[in-house]
Amino acid sequence: PVVNKWYGPSIQVSGLLVARDIYETLSRKKLGDVVLLPPRVLNDDGYFLDDWTLEDLQQKLGVPCHVYDGNLAYLPEELATLSVAS
Fold first, then answer.
1. Fewer CB within 10 Å of terminal CB in the chain, N or C?
2. Is residue 85 over pLDDT 80?
């Protein structure tokens, strides 16, 4: 899990995750082909709360990042679409 250092570890909702915390957690891990992020991590303008963009995070991690729509029933279809697009 990603520890929310920005707002404190007791905060555990995706809408209050910042890209820097995601990066700090994932940069120490061996990553697969894509990073899936929960819905609501980006605001309506496409920014994380710390003003990073999805592209910023992708560039720093070196793998594509995708925010799924929140409906886990459709996640396999979204993953298949990502595989086709790669």
1. N
2. no
Residue entry with tokens 């409906």: 71
Name the residue among 37, 45, 33 with its Cα closest to residue 21.
Answer: 37
> What six digits make up the tokens of 46?
């496409």
Residue 16: strand, helix, or coil:
helix
pTM of the model: 0.83
Any idea how long the chain is? 86
- pLDDT, tens digit (0-9, with 9 covering 90-100), for 53-83: 999 999 999 999 999 888 888 888 888 887 6
- Mean pLDDT calculated for residue range 25-45: 93
* Domain coverage including residue 58: 14-85
Would you state the structure tokens that stand for residue 4, as one six-digit string? Answer: 């929310």
Dist CA 25 CA 4 (whole Å): 10
List 35's β-bridge partners, or say none.
65
Q: Is residue 80 part of a domain?
A: yes
